[in-house]
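Blinded run. Sample ID left blank on purpose so nobody reads anything into the name before looking at the predicted structure. Input follows.
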Amino acid sequence: MIRDFREKAERAVACSEADFAEIRISLHNESTFIQAGISSENTGPVGRFSGTARVFISNRWGICEFSSVENMQMALDRAAAHAIHCQSPPLPFPMLEAECRDSWDDSLLSPSPGDITGREKAFLCRHYCELLGATLGTGSARVSYQERTGDRVIVNSRGTSVHERENLCSMKFQAVLPGGLGNSRELAVRGSFESFKGLEKEIEQLGKDLAFRDTESNIAPGETRVVVDQELAGIIIHEAFGHLVEADFLECNPAVAHSLRPGQKIASPLVNILDDSRMMKYPGSMRWDDEGSPGQRTVLIEKGIVKSWLHTASTAAGNRAETTGNARSADPGRMPEARMTCTFFQEGESTREELLEQLDNGLYLKGFYGGATDMDRFSISVQEAWTVRKGVLHKPITPVVISGRVADVLSAVEGTGNDLKLSGVLKGCARRGGAAIPVSHGGPHLLISRIQVS
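Blinded prediction complete.
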């Protein structure tokens, strides 16, 4: 079926008289398995087809969504009409990659989610939920599994025709004590189901950590010295920096663009940040982006100096830069935007213990509940916080919020661990009213000399 769709799209764009024509097709199935205590709920698989036609005529874009392959040509015609009658300022011709014809199939990785029956997935959720509940002793436990499998095709009039079959799956563990204190973990992967097997020790530890934190106390707000774990390091990079170097955001915010221009020093020499869409085991990875440009590794900061922004073909043309393969469309019928894929802080040489030894009186921060940015400022809710005395974890404290300016925090990085780890989410990054898209983020443990904690 997807082969027929691809061939029809190739014929359609080949006949287009536009300066540039493009067809994007997505055909996906979604399934969900939920175990909450003794209650279970399973849905799916639910299939969905979506298509987008996009054309560039006389330096203006036109775009149109279609819901069946029979309407593909009509959508191309409507997109052309939109471009012809568009009143927006003219745009430079997009920086398109050379023609490419290729395919990628996650199902070749074993075992793929399709190799595991629905009964096995439901059993695994029930098994983990019972184990988590037994570890807690009191309170509630919930385990959910989500799966999204399917095909994505991008065809354009420059000769590109690529097909990517992706298998994305996620399992989330949530525990809540009677007083409302909670803890959660999410494991999301691309490709193989193998990562979800044998998680008993991690689940038991999740319950034990929560029970121990029931004795936590408060601290006074203020600026302090901290060590953050890999997940929180990734969230700081994602929320505090990554969104700021998405080029279409910077085009609307010239003051921020000036402060983050390539060549500008904004961080400690220990800071090296990358975005790599070719890390194919993680959500957010793409062999090709939603314009058919090859995914790649992009150095965003090297030794504290800004090296690049994240670009689509259009933003690259407007900034006289190279496309970075970061064009992502959150919804059908929506123009691709420059978005992060797998963004991480490059590891250093220190162990976690060596970083903690540099804390005489500070905090160890682990995990997160959520985060937000406001231009160059950020705030992140931390899931676990511990006081540290002379390099040793002392006692848990109530969950805290860290905040500050991105340049201040990145300049305060004094140590980087050698334990890089990435975490992914299937629906974790939304922007400008669009749907949440898969992303991954991570880093090693970081020692930060000063950060605002409240």
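Unblinding after everyone has recorded impressions. The first helix runs from residue 2 to 14.
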